[in-house]
Design goal:
Elements (H helix, E strand, L loop, with lengths): L7 H27 L5 H28 L23 H24 L6 H24 L10 H5 L7 H19 L18 H20 L8 H28 L4 H18 L5 H24 L8 H19 L11 H33 L6 H6 L1 H6 L4 H15 L15 H33 L9 H17 L3 E10 L1 H8 L1 H17 L6 E6 L2 E6 L3 H5 L1 H13 L2 E2 L4 E2 L2 E10 L7 H17 L5 E5 L7
Parallel strand pairs: 6-7
Antiparallel strand pairs: 1-3, 1-6, 2-3, 4-5
Helix pairs in contact: 1-2, 1-3, 1-7, 2-3, 2-4, 3-4, 3-6, 4-6, 4-12, 6-11, 6-12, 7-8, 7-9, 8-9, 8-10, 9-10, 9-11, 10-11, 11-12, 18-19
Length: about 650
């Protein structure tokens, strides 16, 4: 093929195609910044892959369906597929193809941000196939077919429908598919409901950079739609610029008035809405009209964002308001603002308005209807949404196995939070940006664990004070009565027999009065030590107060019926003299035993205690230093 210099118009279309391709970078920045970091890689790679997939599909199928000659019975409705990159392709035709491929990529990418953070990668690829291979080319044929040749083959184009650079063809179609998808897959976990909350993106400065890239790309988007570098271009680009500016100002103003602060997502989407709305009529309206169109688009975008949120429809980046709503408004606005001579002879403003409304309506019905039906059917067979666990850990890891040092750190922290185990420090990777966070977090953990240990020790001390005698360390009366209550409850439910021994030291008062309280305390401590040595580990010994003690023996009828043998051992061990500081103390003990339990027994704790106490007094009356037994089987209720 003999090479020739490129025509200026061809060069202009190519350059504008490159600017439109740059919008993919803008979408990647905007969307990945608007999501949580655990999903940022997923969003970015989706934008890359959907562009790859769209380019291939649009080349093989979509371009022919959109710009090929209409089929006989489908005249004006769908084009005949053909491969546009034949050896005989002219530079004009190929440059037009390149420009349109970039447009198709834009329409597909609109969906990505709306469904972010919960749609599976496979599900998103299927959605891309639906829009790039079917919906977008067919709607495009209705409106733009033959446009590269200065003719109108599509049925809407023949009616005079005006959509210069795709407010409806590109943006509303993408917005309708996005709406269908988010209705089917539902909102993100935690976004709505009683405990729902707004979910803020992790890198809003990156999102702002994305808007600037999109704005720059829109100059090619609208300016290149002339397919020629002529006198229309400067005004088209100017209209695009001012529409985006007033859209952003409208978002700023409304968010400030309603929410009392300039919300980033409202301002960002206001700019995009103004740019989107300018596409349909930027070639026929004046600069002042473009400012008005952009301003209204910004207002409608912010209001529709709020409307979706009120109805718990989760559009992560606001794609539906910024593209569908603003695109529809921009298309209708052509009939309201453009001069009448832009529509052809004998066309009234109302007639043009009806055509514009018709085009918006049928494009929306087809795009949403076909998209929703196909996605609903596919979702029944192959779920489009990831699992709750995958959504929780993030699609970076769940879908791609991709992670970052910060995400690894967050995963460790989240695991600790869910398990409630903060005993181990998180791993510190000194060569990453997350190292400082990990170091500070471990310092917080260390302080937390230190304070927790101190609190645990304090609680144990309080428990000791509340349930144990301060002098002897034995269980106190409170703890003893609680334990007795539990044994009594078990005794009522079964046939087991237990024993309560009530002990009162003999001769203690004389030691306490003659030798002093310090000596008396020594006697009590030694007596407690000797009594404990006579018992099993499972038996309970308590100091009820003063020189009165109690023992609970649980363990079946044999252990309980041997309570007398235990009492004898106690008498023997306490009869031995107790060495004191300057003297020797000698005490004895009187013991009352109450057996309780057995088949059909239904007595009370207080009754058992009274029985043992009464038996102890009988031992006292018998001369002290002995034991007596009361049969609690015969207590009232027994």
């Amino acid at each position: 093929m003999e090479s020739q210099a490129l025509d200026a118009d061809v060069l202009w279309v190519l350059m504008c195609g490159f600017l439109v391709a740059l919008m993919q970078a803008g979408f990647a920045c905007l969307e990945s910044g608007m999501v949580r970091e655990k999903n940022s890689i997923n969003v970015a790679i989706k934008n890359l892959v959907d562009f790859c997939l769209t380019c291939a599909l649009f080349t093989v199928i979509g371009f022919g369906l959109m710009f090929g000659p209409s089929w006989g019975p489908l005249d004006g409705w769908v084009g005949k597929p053909y491969f546009p990159l034949s050896d005989s392709g002219e530079a004009v035709h190929i440059s037009f193809f390149i420009f349109q491929v970039m447009f198709a990529g834009t329409a597909a990418t609109i969906i990505s941000g709306a469904v972010a953070e919960r749609m599976s990668f496979v599900g998103y690829m299927i959605t891309t196939v639906i829009i790039a291979g079917l919906v977008y080319p067919i709607v495009g044929h209705w409106i733009w077919a033959g446009g590269d040749k200065g003719e109108a083959w599509g049925w809407l184009g023949q009616l005079g429908f005006h959509d210069f650079a795709g407010s409806t063809v590109v943006h509303s179609v993408g917005g309708w598919l996005a709406l269908a998808a988010i209705l089917i897959i539902g909102p993100r976990i935690g976004r709505f409901g009683p405990l729902g909350r707004p979910i803020e993106g992790h890198n809003l400065p990156m999102s702002t950079l994305g808007v600037f890239l999109l704005w720059f790309g829109f100059f090619g988007f609208n300016g290149g739609s002339t397919y020629a570098i002529d006198t229309r271009v400067p005004e088209i680009i100017a209209n695009t610029a001012v529409a985006g500016a007033t859209g952003g100002l409208a978002g700023l103003m409304l968010s400030w008035l309603v929410w009392k602060r300039p919300q980033v997502d409202r301002i960002v989407n206001g700019v995009i809405a103004g740019l989107v709305a300018s596409c349909a009529g930027c070639d026929v309206i004046s600069g002042l009209d473009a400012m008005a169109v952009g301003f209204v688009a910004g207002i409608l975008c912010v209001l529709s964002m709020h409307w979706l949120e009120q109805r718990e429809i989760d559009d992560v980046i606001g794609a539906v308001p910024a593209h569908l709503v603003a695109g529809a408004w921009g298309t209708v606005a052509v009939a309201l603002f453009a001069p009448l001579d832009a529509f052809g002879p004998d066309v009234t403003r109302w007639h043009q308005l009806s055509i514009q409304v018709l085009g918006v309506a049928v494009s929306g019905l087809f795009s949403f209807g076909v998209g929703y039906a196909l996605l609903w059917g596919i979702n029944r067979v192959l779920p489009l949404r990831v699992s709750a666990e995958a959504e929780r850990i993030g699609l970076n890891v769940a879908e791609h196995g991709a992670t970052t040092a910060l995400l690894d750190l967050i995963t460790q922290m989240d695991s600790q939070a869910r398990q409630g185990d903060f005993s181990r420090a998180v791993t510190v990777d000194a060569e990453t940006d997350a190292a400082h966070i990990a170091v500070f977090y471990n310092a917080v953990l260390d302080k937390f664990n230190t304070e927790t240990e101190r609190r645990h020790v304090a609680l144990e001390r309080l428990n000791q004070i509340a349930n144990h005698d301060a002098l002897t360390g034995l269980a106190n009366r409170r703890r003893f009565m609680e334990h007795l209550g539990r044994i009594v409850q078990r005794a009522r439910r079964g046939a087991a027999v237990s024993a309560l021994l009530y002990l009162d030291l003999d001769g203690f008062k004389q030691i306490n009065d003659s030798l002093g309280h310090e000596a008396g305390d020594m006697v009590l401590v030694e007596a407690a030590h000797r009594m404990k040595a006579c018992l099993r580990d499972e038996d309970m010994l308590a100091r009820l107060g003063g020189d009165e003690f109690a023992i609970l023996i649980e363990g079946g009828e044999e252990a309980a019926l041997n309570a007398g043998a235990v009492a004898e051992k106690l008498l023997d061990c306490l009869v031995e003299p107790i060495p004191l500081k300057d003297a020797t103390g000698k005490v004895g003990v009187s013991i009352g035993i109450a057996l309780f339990g057995g088949l059909g027994w239904s007595g009370e704790s207080e009754a058992v205690l009274r029985a043992a106490d009464q038996a102890m007094y009988e031992a006292k009356l018998a001369g002290k230093g002995t034991w007596r037994q009361a049969n609690a089987f015969e207590l009232e209720g027994g």
